[in-house]
Amino acid sequence: MPVFYPSQEINILIKHFPEEILSKGKASESIKPVKNKLHKAISLFPFDPNTLNKAGWEKLGLSDKQAQVIINYRNKGGKFFKKEDLRKIYSLDSMKVQELLPYVIISKTEERSSFTNIEYPKEKNFRFKKAPEIIELNSSDSIGFISLNGIGPVYSKRIIKFREALGGFVRLEQISEVYGIPAETYVAILPYLKLDLSLVKKIDINSVNVNDLGKHPYIKYKRARTIINYRDQHGPFKSLSDLRNIHSLDEEFFSKIELYLEFR
After folding, report:
1. Which DSSP category does 47 fall into?
2. Which Pfam families did the record assign (predicted)?
3. 222 vs 228: CA distance, rounded Å
């Protein structure tokens, strides 16, 4: 039979009930699940950069952003013809490229790839040219650029305007950044381009003012202000490694800008 206690006895029982049992319910409510930070497992394996998907790049240790840069590059018509072409991906630092190079396999199809079957978009009042000469990007005038298949007066002016804003080209692949140039045109003219890095106008990072620094297409005013403020607080930059102390600047930024800077 059930036993009924007077209310006074119940209160006495509760008073003497072990605290840890009474608090058990409250404690369980306060416990919140802790999310474990899962680190992606990095594995190195042979791969073709022309066909590897985004998930594959991430398995090799690339971030989501780095992998997407490569996918975007390929979607625009960019190709890897030799292992060293990995270096033209701005989002990859030199150490990561060195780590990946031994595993790169370029298919023979890409190695033998020719550009003879590419259809080039036409500009108004523009005719195709034959056998263009090799063009030096940092010294050529508009006539030189127009001699390239797929480049007419409009694109020629844009190339020169972009070159002046940069202070010169430091990589052939920068042509793909010129506004409006189709990916297939970029791929077609790439073999006919060369670079003279001695013609690049360097930025003295220890004397430039914020307005001039902010005019560079890869820096802009917000980054320029951050850099100058840091310089004012900590003194002149001795090398690129000093700039890396500015945590808001990422590796993609450094890979783009390092060849434009000088430290006096």
Report:
1. B
2. HHH_3 (PF12836)
3. 10
By the 8 A CB rule, do 87 and 98 touch?
no
Q: CA–CA distance from 143 to each of 89, 124, 147, 183 (Å)?
A: 29, 16, 6, 22
What is d(CA 118, CA 123) in angstroms, rounded to the nearest whole number? 16
For residues 209 and 198, is the Cβ–Cβ distance under 8 A? no
pLDDT tens per residue across all 264 residues of the chain: 555 555 555 444 445 444 544 444 444 444 444 444 445 567 888 888 998 998 889 989 989 988 898 998 888 888 888 888 888 887 888 888 888 988 888 876 554 444 444 444 444 444 554 556 899 999 999 999 999 999 999 999 999 999 999 999 999 989 999 999 988 888 889 889 999 999 999 999 999 999 999 999 999 999 999 999 999 999 999 999 999 999 999 988 999 999 999 998
Q: Which DSSP string do the residues of 175-235 spell out, in sequence order?
A: GGGSTT--HHHHHHHGGGEE--GGG---EETTT--HHHHHTSTTTHHHHHHHHHHHHHHH-
| pTM, full prediction | 0.54
Provide the CB-side half-sphere exposure for 229 (13 A, CA): 9
